[in-house]
Sequence to fold (935 residues):
Amino acid sequence: MKKVLEIEGLFVDLQLPAGTLQAVQNVSFSVNQGETLSLVGESGCGKSLTALAVMNLLPPSGRFRAEKMEFMGESLLGVNEAGMAKVRGDKMAMIFQEPMTSLNPCYTIGNQLEEAYLQHRNVPESEARERAIYLLEKVGITAAASRLSQYPHQLSGGLRQRVMIAMGLMCGPALIIADEPTTALDVTIQAQILALLHALQKEFNMGLILITHDLGVVARMADRVAVMYCGQVVETGLAAEIFNNPKHPYTRGLMDCIPVPGKVEPGQKLGSIPGIVPTPIGNLHGCLFRNRCRYFRSKCAAENIPLIELGPGRAVRCISEQINS
Amino acid sequence: MNTEDTTNGKLSDLGIKVDYPTPNQIMFRSMARHKGFLVGSAVLVIVVLMAVLAPVLAPHDPYEQNLSMRMIPTVWQENGSWEHPLGTDNMGRDYLSRIIYGSRVSLMIGFLVMIIAASIGTTLGLLAGYFGGRVDMVVSFLITVRLALPAVLVAVAVVALIGGSTKVVIMVLGFLIWDRFAVVIRASTQQIRPMEYVAAAKAAGCSTRRILIGEVMPNLMNNLIVVMTLEVARAILLEAALSFLGMGVQPPTPSWGLMISEAKEFMLFDPHLITIPGIALFVLLLGMNLLGDGIRDVTAPEGRS
Amino acid sequence: MIIYIVKRMGLALAVAVAVSMVSFMLIRMSGDPAIALAGENASSEEIEHVRAQYGFDRPLVVQYLDWGMKAARGDLGESPYFHLPVKQILGDRIGVTLTLGACALVFALVVSIPMGVLAAIRPNTWWDRTALGISVVGQAMPSFWFGLILIIIFAVHFRLLPVSGSDSWKHYILPTITLGYYATPAFMRLLRSGMMEVLASDYIRTARAKGLRWPKVLFKHALRNAVIPVVSLAAVQLGFMLGGSIVVESVFALHGIGYLAWESIGRSDLPVVQAIVLLLSMIYVFLTFLSDILNAALDPRIRMM
Fold:
């Protein structure tokens, strides 16, 4: 299978008044054509910043560096703003968390759908319009042609997120990055949007990076998973492996937080992870999860923990024998 | 608790110092770093000292006319002397002394006008923001009507009809410029009203009066102080404009606006008579505005960014 | 949309009526108009004569209704000083004031829009500090003093422009700058903060994620949104500037209604003063109504209501 995106050694730093926040540290992953990679972790673990770094859309206080960042065989490192603009919205699209605020209130849906297509393809407006109608129908919006003249505030959150997806698909991208695409939506709408994303991804054979904190979403959607904690990938593997045999204490903790019908008795307490996430500012050393870990031993604080390969595409950032035996 | 201690201990293991400053420390630190705040406070302190110590600082009586000493140039001009560092005006009065005494007029009027305006505006804003509905409609309407009236023109007309005196100027301006208090306090009260502590006070059976004074007002203080500072500046500016138009403080009181007005006819040959009181006025207004903006920045919950 | 316009219009009318009451009462409550009209030294018979002639002996409500009904039809009475209809006097002068107001508004927008936008996209740079400096200074600068300084520099010292009067376009340059600079800080601050807020918004990120070029992101997506509140402010500021024209026009002896108001106050020409207060208030009410309509045209969220 063809690799769409390959990233090695990505770091993202945020300059804050309190110091430099090392939001993403040495993250590596790749996405293949037609494959869904899920970045999982709590809010603030650096998963969104990873995606924004790929798009080169970090906030002004953010800087990134990487050893390797290849998109469809071409390096994105050192590409200037104009060069990135050519890639964005064309072969690489992004869907954001907040459909309510991600559309410009001053312009019609049609205008905002068409402008990306007109930007990247030298086509007449009528063709962009047809494409917009086609995609609105694809994402399950009825009376698509009449929607084009509507303004964002006239649509519900679910409809807006469908519009955002259609917008991402306008130029037929090879990779879609969806950053918590269903978090802001009602539960029933969430399922619809996820099913839609899944179907479209298979139909157009796109790579999909799905960023979420919701393991339920991961279980339904992901082929492969990278679990992130405090800016680092702590565990990677096939979705099935991660769910059936979680290795890292953090991943295990996350799994214990989900109620599973049949497995968890009514009235039984769900698991929780004690302690708080440290803020990655200053000189980081040792395992960042150790203050919350029940397997903590002095060795964990002494050295930096590498990702330990367990098999092809399977790795965990933990040195505890109890984990690896 | 025990778990908390260990958590903190391990946080510092990670190289993270858990040394959170208190809100007051944060405020003092940002005050010390905020240039506008520092400059503004310095200006205000200097002008207040000038006003308080006017009899000590002023080399001459600001009202004393000496027709043989008219239009003496400043010390940096030709024929100037240290006897009258800023020269004299067309009546032979020492300009420096008049500037020093002028600070009293500006500060007193600015402060008293602000007090009147603050009482009216804060009351209206508080009632509108807290009770909403009809009360809010009436107050909003009053604010719109007030904004529609041209303030300077109305003030000038009323002062002219009643007769100009410092007292009249203070009353008229006080009753004219309450609008910003009402607007800001109304908006902040609307934000505070749905808060849990207000609901808690209500549930505890506190009277409306008690809630307004005990719960709402303290949380308005930051905003109120900012508006107070800015409105003192606005009142000083309006007093100067009124005096400049001849409908404010009456001669021979040394008001900076009046001094500019009196110096207008000597603009051609003695422009310093205009520039000096203008600079005094400008520096005071600049200081008050910087102070107001500074207080807003340092008391803002997110700090400044 | 129609409901919105009707509501706004209703509010504007209510404010207009209230403002007319206030401007009527202001003049009446500030003293006996008969004495003011007859003059300080008039005998009691003369005063009584004036009282009867102008109908000041009738109940206040009757007087107001009479005056208000006439004013609504455009009859503002007669000026005892000019012995001409007030309407005609104002008609001769209003053009100058409106020209000055329009020029000043254009000046303020031309200066503040580019500077505010640049300050927002390059925060904490040299540009941003310059813009901040201009707005801080502008806020603290008394406009009458600034006008005099401009006269001293450009008219007296360099002899580039006329000192005063309203005969040619050259006479408008300094007043335009004076009045326009007064409005600039508010525009600049609003544009800078509005633009920064918009640039940090989700839909700007969406626009960039679409691969749009920076100028298109800036002008199509950001500026369009940031400009909406500026329209409201422009209407309000123009209203304030016209109200403040009394100061600037008297500095430059520009023969608009502000200068007329000042002169008329000096000669107790009450019908003229009253009419000018009313007229300026009505213009303000109209401008705010206009800005509501413009807002609806610019913002689809209001338009679709």
User: Anything to note?
Assistant: The mean pLDDT of chain B is 85. Chain B has 13 helices and no strands. The two ends of chain B are 35 Å apart (CA to CA).
